């Protein structure tokens, strides 16, 4: 039976292990804001984690933000980060504690692979206002296939390919749950890590997949990485930004034809 992911132990060091709020993170936030039209909107950040996106949307983009997350530990970190006016609640995507139609936008960043789409997508549609939008950020399948840690942890690829839906499946699931006007933006970032940075991340189990592989595989992979990792690691992050409306765009009504002079 597949183990579930517990983010509480990761929470205190999560941002440190994932790279913090550097230029690449700010670039992703700007991409999501522009693609999802998030400036000044009433936004629900589903799976808000430590509150990085919620804080950025409120502080830099004048959004009115609520965040939900199922991890008490992650929310504790978020409460110390977000500015006043950002609301936070302990809740799952599959059961959102909000009134129908309350939000103009819903965001999800590296969250979709943790939820049950059959239950979460109807809930997201329910809380979106008419013509509101879902904007989600996730990894492209090519990112999973090319990840530099695959060689050290043999089941990593299989586990993550089963979790991260390919673009075609994302499109199909969103359409099935009546999301419309779907748009996908592909984005690529080049990352560089030192050997020490990579080992610090691996030892801290910085990706949730480490909780889903056998303990003995993790230990063996860590030992191999300690022996074999080069001094400098370069790899690509390949992202998908997916934006869709909860209601279809209704074309403006055509004016009646002008009466013909007789």
Fraction of residues in helices? 25-40%
Q: How much strand? A: 15-25%
Please state the average pLDDT score.
92
Please outline the major beta sheet: 7 strands, mixed
Instruction: State Rg.
Output: 20 Å
Which sequence of SSEs, written as H and E, runs from N to C?
HHEHEHEEHEHHHEHHE
Count the beta strands: 7
Structural class: alpha/beta
How many helices? 10
- Widest sheet: strand ordering: 3-2-1-4-5-7-6
CATH architectural name of one domain: 3-Layer(aba) Sandwich
The CATH class label of one domain is Alpha Beta
Query: Which spans of ≥5 residues are poorly predicted at pLDDT below 50?
Result: 251-262
Query: Could you state the CATH homologous superfamily of one domain?
Result: Vaccinia Virus protein VP39
- Give the termini distance in whole angstroms: 79 Å
In short:
With 262 residues, this protein is an alpha/beta fold. The chain has ten helices and seven strands. It has helices at 14-18, 23-36, 52-60, 72-79, 117-127, 141-145, 156-163, 167-176, 195-203, 215-228, and strands spanning 42-46, 64-69, 87-90, 103-109, 128-139, 180-194, 232-245.
What does this structure look like?
- The chain is of the alpha/beta class.
- It has a domain of 168 residues: Vaccinia Virus protein VP39 (Rossmann fold).
- Helices cover 35% and strands 24% of the residues.
- The chain contains ten helices and seven strands.
- Strands 3-2-1-4-5-7-6 form a seven-stranded mixed beta sheet.
- The C terminus is likely disordered.
List the helices and strands and how they pair.
Layout: H1 14-18, H2 23-36, E1 42-46, H3 52-60, E2 64-69, H4 72-79, E3 87-90, E4 103-109, H5 117-127, E5 128-139, H6 141-145, H7 156-163, H8 167-176, E6 180-194, H9 195-203, H10 215-228, E7 232-245
Parallel strand pairs: 1-2, 1-4, 2-3, 4-5
Antiparallel strand pairs: 5-7, 6-7
